[in-house]
Each structure stands twice: as structure tokens, then as C-alpha cells.
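The records we work with from here on pair a chain with its fold. A complete example follows; check for yourself that the lines match position by position.
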Amino acid sequence: MTNFLTQITTLLCPQHCCRARAFPSIRASFQNEENTTCSRRKIVTTFVASSVALTGLQYQVIMKTPDALAQNWGTRSFIRERFFEPGLSPEDAVARIKQTAEGLHSIRDMLESMSWRYVIFYIRLKSAYLSQDLKNAMTTLPEARRQDYAKVANELVDNMAEFDYYVRTPKVYESYVYYEKTLKSIDDLVALLA
């Protein structure tokens, strides 16, 4: 028992607790600090310069793509077209109207499989910029054909709105009817623009 008490007293002995712990002294060297600051600046400058250069290269690649082909980019193109692209030239607007006509012809499979959500998204995406394209494309026509163009363009917009409504409901027969009417009116419009 005395042996046990001796061990306890040696553990609790104040000699062990009061020992001064020697911490390494920290000394600042101004010259080394300046070198690390310069090297950090060089690293940050190199990083910023390379990221700016890469961003510039990506921007050039994006800007080389024709604006009329913007619909092939998917959902990101909607954001880019809506907020970051100015209006297209009349020739590009005509090209995008023709591509919209081809795209509307290609959604027949989605209608037959009753993929209403995708059809709604596609219709709204196309109708979002179609009105601006119709206005831009009208400037390419001679004055004598503008009256017919306005009539067909208004018919197209009305048919697309009805098509959108019936796809949202979803009423199958009416959706097919207004899909065919939309195709007929956009084909007439493309024929007027050709």
C-alpha cells in the first residue's frame, strides 16, 4: 500500500507541473517574409493571368458559333439568348425561323409518345424568341408581301399559343389539331421568306 501511495504522490508532485515548458522562439525575418510575399504575388498574378486568358479563349470559341444555331445548345441557350444576346440580324432571324420549322416537324415523336413536359418546354422556348425573329425577318421582305407575311405570322403565333394551351391541359386530339395547324402556318411563313 505504501508503494501505491508513493506512486500517487510522485504523480501529483508539484515538480512535474511547474516545469517551465520551452516553446521555440519565433523570430520574424523581414527579408524572408518579403521573398514569400513576392512569390505569393507571382503565383496569384500567374493564376489570374492564365484564368483570364482561358476565359478569353472560351469566349472566342463561343462567339465563333453562328447565332442561328443557338437552339442546338439546349437549356443554356435560352438563358444566353434571353439575357445576353442582342437581337439577331434579319438574315439570322430568317435562318432561325427555318430551324424552328424543322424543329417543330421533329417533335412529332414526342407528341406520339405523349411526352407533354418536353413538348411544353420546347414550345415555350421557341415562342420566347419567335416574336422577335418574326419582327426582324419582316424587314427582309418587300413592301408588297408584308401584309401577307403579317397575316401568316399572326396566325402562327395564335396557333402556337393554342397548341401550348392544349398540350398543358393535356387534350390529345386538340393538341394534334393545333400541332398540324402550327406546322401549316410555319411552313407557309417559311415559303413567304424563301
